[in-house]
Amino acid sequence: MGGAGGDHGHLARVLNSHLDTIHDTFQVLSQKPSCFLKRVSWDEVVKIGDQVSKQATVVGMLWTGQKPQAKAMEESMTTYFNALQGFLLLSHGSMVGAGPTLSSNIHKLAKKVVDSSFKLLSSSVHSYGSSNDEEQGVSIPVLVGTVWEACSALKKAPATNITAIGRAMSQVAVTMKDVLREMKELKPACPDPSHEASDVSSTKEEGETQVDDNSSEGDIGNDLSPEDMKVANAAIVVVSDTLTVVKELIRAITGLLKMENSDDNSAFVDSLEKLLTLCQGIGVQIDELGACLYPPQEISAMTVVSGKMLTHLNDLQVEVENINGASEGFVRACDIVRSSLKQFESDLSCSCPDDLESLLRSTTLND
What we know:
Blueprint: H1 3-27, H2 42-62, H3 70-93, H4 100-129, H5 140-152, H6 161-184, H7 193-205, H8 213-218, H9 226-253, H10 257-260, H11 266-292, H12 299-324, H13 328-366
């Protein structure tokens, strides 16, 4: 053998060979498995993930004392990569019958396990070749912990299309709640102009001549006119009512687990994915609505948003009814949103004359 340098070179070549193999196997996850294959239970993926976690522990234990032997490191690498290879193959098998949302979740989880494993084993080989005794193996415990976390996340992952899509819808609801909270923080302008004038005069008396650049940022959303506030309040009702629709939608699809277990569920999964797309589309419009409420309010843009939300809502209800029939609570929630959208558009139309008058006045002055 060529001594420590030769051992390190050999370990590096072994590592690179394993990395290339795992990289090629990982590419398989991007390919949709045949629907004729038997689906691998997610429990099996979790079990082999535990094996990967244990192998990460073995690698860490090699560095608990003195510098490990090259043979021991090579053997642990081989065992580790065999487990990782099996993990990827079973992960791919679990994607049989999975829609885009579930497949994406599986892909992301598998990538975290692979990436953390690559970093751990690469660091282990690098540490073996380091001539600095203090540097050797220092990062190994932290990297072992990263692999543990990636493997532990498998146990919390959605195992079915319904669960994966339900969680994605829940994330849309969380974002809507954030927008709603920001909407409720909008405030009307100070009704007494003299109050603002007195503040300015008192500031001058105190000898403060510099303008705080951050003050204008803090005042954003605190200077709405009465007309602006009327529109904002109507928008708040729309978002709040839409949140109820999303909650009813999540409740509706979580009761469809038995339908997903049928032999041919491709059409069912496609319908679920369409529901998610529509739900996310509504979420995008609500984000846009929240941005339009800050003065100067964009009335025309909000009118467009309202129209798109109504279209998404109608499509959503039709799709739910096609899957398994819409519940009374879901239908009622949709009707309430239609009513709130109608009121919202009415309030927007009342704001239009003022906007038109301002535009005409501005054009006259410019002429």
